[in-house]
């Protein structure tokens, strides 16, 4: 039986980001060619990755000697030297590399790279800021769809008094005169070979009595405005801790 072909990537620039990516890929069984103009950077990872080469990636002949066009992708991991990144993009194109992934440190740099038809652009700092902003903005977020002068569908962050409780124990209809339609949950999933994460919204469907409300859940509710005001203003003491009802 033929052995399964290993993926292989050529990584250019072994700073903090590049070396971490190289090590992460190598530990996942991927063949990594690590390229940097500094032998010192390569020394730190040489025992982990498949191969390291010290060369100037802006020199076409030097890069051509490594047959980078045969790899599944070339990933430019350089951060601050954007001019160098552009030169390497040109070299890789000249060598016939079909898939080029490039790191950008600013949105302007990302914009330029995408206009050069680099579809896969990594923006680590911007992605991290976006995730944090999304997380923080959920704290007081209310989205409303008015159905009439009295009734609406409202999206609210789960009050702390509900967290850890079963849906059936909260008695939305009896206690608050609202209907729980569904629960939107923000889940953090690994992204880009585990080096980064991204927040993904997931609806849990029709909540069952045994469904447990978790921290940061978003509740989609139907009811009238006064009912929502009661729910949101109701003191936490009106609910005993889980397991102590009645």
UniProtKB/TrEMBL annotation:
Q: Which InterPro entries is this protein grouped with?
A: NAD(P)-bd_dom_sf, RCK_C, RCK_C_sf, RCK_N, Trk_Ktr_HKT_K-transport
Q: Name one Pfam family in it.
A: TrkA_C
User: This chain belongs to which protein, by name?
Assistant: TrkA family potassium uptake protein
Q: What residues does the RCK N-terminal domain cover?
A: 6-122
Report domain RCK C-terminal positions.
140-237
